[in-house]
């Protein structure tokens, strides 16, 4: 039911009876609100009706099913507390939608009329803002500005026409600091009306988010402004982030939006790529330039594309090195070069389990069996085919394989490197003489060129 019509009915004095009838009818007519229990990537949802399109896959996520009714594509989001597994061994008490944080990806098509029902099962009011959409002001979801807040237990309906395709997000515009720090957000993908336009073989998406969860606890601190300790993609940290399996030769698109408090230089190994879509829409071919890292600012969306012509296991991560660490990596003093063997011996007389970290660097932490508080991810973790990966946070792997079937998003396992294509250890003689000694002439030359200023001549040294 159109809210304007409901308002008309209630103000038209059809009065108490009319309003109650309309409300009950509207509730009975709400579309289903499916929930998802698994934090694993769900297969792309081929559109069962409506306009055809090539669906996306959401890392560690899913797409919200809809129903078509009277020319409207109807979705039902339920804002609610959820428990999200950040990675095996750690769960967080978050707020999200339909059982997960982030909420399900919404997919629709340019030209669709969408009706988005939002039910609030949080302990406080909320709204949803459709980030990046061109829509009527009253559908923009800013609590207090364009609508009253959606009270606890209430349902609001948003209706608008999707006027353009692209990569969008949704999130509350109500008690935002708290609600986004708790994980309330989702992707909103609008596909082009003509499915041949911007066509790719694989279309991945995820949201970049961050949490501040003290080691040993489950609920994010919501007042943290910058000093987050869990850097996540779709509320998952390495090694919990899905890999991105691709078939050799595929055209691949990866879309992401940033709802953290800092920018993220997103870097992919083994390829150069082109940014093909930003917040504002598609980038014309002639305006694209090649990149290997694309910085995505706060509140921005980016999509890049590449032809998957290089087989292998290619690291894909944020290039801020703290963002590929988990909670235990912060606030640890630098111990490199400190010899505290004697101190350790004396402390161990009192505390037998005492251990020192980091005197040779921090890499030991990738494999050490260190006692951690419950529900805490090691600073760096995850096993690769050649040992610990020494990563955490925003890190995953793009896996390009010749034998990956079209439409198969299953894990192909680790890459088998063809003979002669892998770094190897030198096992021959290590001749000291092979290390070049600094040439003595260089220091002599350095001393031999005093800086002088010649009268009437050119100035040296400037
Ligand atoms: Cu980052």
Architecture overview:
With 462 residues, the chain is mainly beta. It is 10% helix and 30% strand. The protein is built from 5 helices and 24 strands. The protein has helices at 3-11, 15-28, 176-181, 341-350, 440-448, and strands spanning 57-58, 67-69, 72-87, 90-97, 106-109, 113-120, 129-131, 155-161, 166-171, 186-191, 202-211, 230-233, 244-247, 251-258, 264-268, 273-278, 281-282, 290-291, 293-296, 301-307, 312-318, 381-384, 387-391, 395-401. Strands 1, 11, 12, 14, 16, 17, 18 and 20 form an 8-stranded mixed sheet that branches. Strands 2, 3, 4, 6 and 8 form a 5-stranded mixed sheet that branches. The chain has a 5-stranded mixed sheet with strand order 13-24-21-15-19, with no helix packed on it. Strand 16 and strand 17 form a beta hairpin. Helix 1 (3-11) packs antiparallel against helix 2. The longest helix is centred in the first third of the chain and has 14 residues, at 15-28. It starts with a helix and ends in a 14-residue tail after the last helix. Residues 1-27 and 441-462 have low confidence and may be disordered. The site of copper (II) ion has 6 residues, from loops.
